[in-house]
Amino acid sequence: MKANQPFNIVLLGGPGSGKGTQAKLIKTKYGLEHLSTGALFRHEIAIRSGIGIIAQQAIDKGNYCPDNLTLNMLNQHINASGNTKGFIFDGVPRTIHQAKMMDGIDYSPIVPVSLVIYIFVEDAEIEKRILGRANEENRSDDNPEVIKQRIRNFHQLTEPLIQYYSEQNKLMSVNGMQPINEVFNAIDHILSTHENFENEQYSCII
After folding, report:
1. Cα separation of 154 and 12, whole Å?
2. What are φ and ψ of residue 35, in 5° steps?
3. Residue 87 has what pLDDT?
4. CB 74 within 8 A of CB 35
């Protein structure tokens, strides 16, 4: 890795697996910037932008937003972030096509991925967590029918990324069924012992 190249982490996992929670903890300790495509889309929906209207139609059905739309929006926010140690990508890539686009295949610019952390959570636990979240946040994409579609989409479209990134020697897995602090301890161990964090540029914030 080049000395000045950002260290970008992808958090991979099903809906409700805790990616957002863990991203915030990683951000606090390591000083990386958290980019959640879900949060970005919800912002676009709130302001009724063209992106937001298209996103709302997909999200309400439990489907993924179009790949080009997602990557274009992601790059827009990366460019607006200025200098940073790197990013925690939460919610992207969600398909093999998005991963290839990030690798620069038939898409520009390249969005380099340094490490992928897969947070494994069983389907039954995912449903339980999201239904609990629905009561708190009143999200339109958190009803039983849509939840089941989101889980199906994860298995069909996103799970293949496990093999994709394993073949690039970038994938590490953690058990997301544990309490939040134990999941973070596992992620923290991965990051603190990763060769690219031995460099002072990527040292953690105390």
Report:
1. 10
2. -120, 105
3. 96
4. yes
Determine the pLDDT at residue 10.
Answer: 98
pTM for this prediction = 0.85
Q: Which residue has the tokens 């309400």?
A: 60
Across-strand partners of 174?
Answer: 119
Task: Tell me which residue has tokens 């929906």.
Answer: 45
Neighbours of 104 (CB within 10 A): 12
Question: What are the backbone angles phi and psi of residue 176, rounded to the nearest 5°?
Answer: -80, 0
**Which range has the worst mean pLDDT, 24-28, 37-41, 193-197?**
193-197
3-class secondary-structure state, position 88: strand
Separation CA 112–CA 4 (nearest Å)? 12
Helix (H) or strand (E) holding 171: strand 171-175
Integer Cα distance of 146 and 60 in angstroms: 7
Q: Decide if 205 contacts 30 (C-beta within 8 A).
A: yes
Strand partners, 119: 174
CB 64 within 8 A of CB 58: yes
- Distance in angstroms (rounded) separating the CA atoms of residues 10 and 94: 10
Name the average pLDDT for the chain: 87
DSSP 18-39: SHHHHHHHHHHHH-PEEEEHHH
d(CA 122, CA 114): 26
Q: How far apart are CA 7 and CA 113, in angstroms?
A: 7
